[in-house]
TrEMBL record:
Xref: SUPFAM superfamilies: YppE-like (SSF140415)
Name listed for the protein in its UniProt record: YppE family protein
Lineage, opening ranks: Bacteria, Bacillati, Bacillota, Bacilli, Bacillales
Organism: Candidatus Pseudogracilibacillus intestinigallinarum
InterPro entries linked to this entry: YppE-like, YppE-like_sf
Top-rank taxon: Bacteria
One Pfam family in the UniProt entry: DUF1798
Length: 117
């Protein structure tokens, strides 16, 4: 359970970093291969972390150690991956970005609360 807590806290920190990237507003030029490589190297660790988080959190749900629904975990994983891409490619409006981010943060904070009790 401590590993899930650490992963959750790391994901929260990554979400804050991604928001900073989004707010900088650096749009890529068309077919910018260097930008694509930069994004790929920065996003891959997040994707790996999200997949580990999903696996370990799903296990805790199956063992009934946390009171979350599996669909919440699935939706959160998809949203984190979407946020990661939207942060760099700026292909979504700010309000939509914030809505996705808030839903992710809600589930992550809820999980932290469950793990603390």
């Amino acid at each position: 359970m401590t590993e899930v807590k650490q992963l959750t806290e790391s994901l929260i920190a990554y979400m804050q970093k991604l928001e900073i990237v989004f707010n900088k507003g650096e749009k890529p030029t068309h077919n910018d291969h260097a930008f694509f490589e930069k994004v790929r190297t920065e996003i891959n660790p997040i994707y790996d972390m999200v997949e580990a988080w999903e696996e370990k959190t799903s296990y805790l749900i199956q063992q009934r150690k946390v009171d979350l629904h599996p669909k919440q975990v699935d939706a959160t994983v998809k949203s984190i991956k979407a946020i990661a891409l939207h942060s760099y490619y700026l292909d979504v409006r700010k309000r939509r970005y914030q809505d996705i981010k808030k839903s992710v943060e809600y589930v992550l904070q809820l999980l932290l609360k469950e793990l603390s009790s």
